[in-house]
Amino acid sequence: MPTLSQLLVTRSNPVSLLHAARTTLAVIVSYAAARLFRLPEAYWAPISAMVVMQSTLGAALPISAQRFAGTALGALVGAVTGTYFQQSLWVFGVAVFLIGVLCAILRVERNAYRYAGITLVIVMLVPRTAGAWRIAIHRFFEVSLGIAVGLVLSALWPERPVTAAAAKAPAPPSASGPATAGAPDSPAPRHS
To answer: How confident is the model at residue 78, as a pLDDT?
Structure first.
């Protein structure tokens, strides 16, 4: 079983100052844009931008498309359900299952189903005074804005690939002692 240090400390994809600057710019721009459009829960835009910025553009594009589609589906099902049915545990459960059925019929990735379910939860279960359609539309635009800002920034200011020298850097010391010249820690011998 890996140690906590082995699970947390990376050799191949560390956070860099450049990555932190790109991510910061994306969350600030997305939040400012959401506030400019007077979206009521503007914090969803920087959350979405933060998710997109954790990958390269090539890796972020498919997951962003899945998040966009899932958010749209979850918002739509949540708005229809909230408009035509009284809120209950059973109605919520049926709506989650319906989203799963629609995702299966449309043959979309499981990530889209997950994002659709998350959006459904937010639209259906978070108490608000506004109607279901208004909540759903706001959620869709808040999330989509963050995705768009993250993708545009990733395209305009791409992540630099990790160099071969950085990938071969010695491992940080583990909890069991210092690592030797870049060799992985060997497991402790078992005594029976």
So the answer is: 96
Q: If we measure between CA atoms, which residue out of 53, 38, 101, 48 comes closest to residue 73?
A: 101
Residue 173 pLDDT > 80: no
Give backbone dihedrals phi and psi of 174, rounded to 5 degrees, phi first.
-95, 175
Q: What is the pTM of this model?
A: 0.75
The first and second tokens of residue 104, run together, are: 């299966």
Distance CA 132, CA 109 (A): 26
Q: Are 113 and 77 in contact (CB under 8 A)?
A: no
Cα distances from 35 to residues 25, 128, 134, in angstroms, run: 15, 19, 17
Contacts of 63 (CB under 8 A, 6+ apart): 51, 52, 55, 111
Instruction: Say how many CA atoms lie within 13 Å of 74 toward its Cβ.
Output: 29
pLDDT at 25: 97
Q: And the tokens for 127?
A: 């108490």
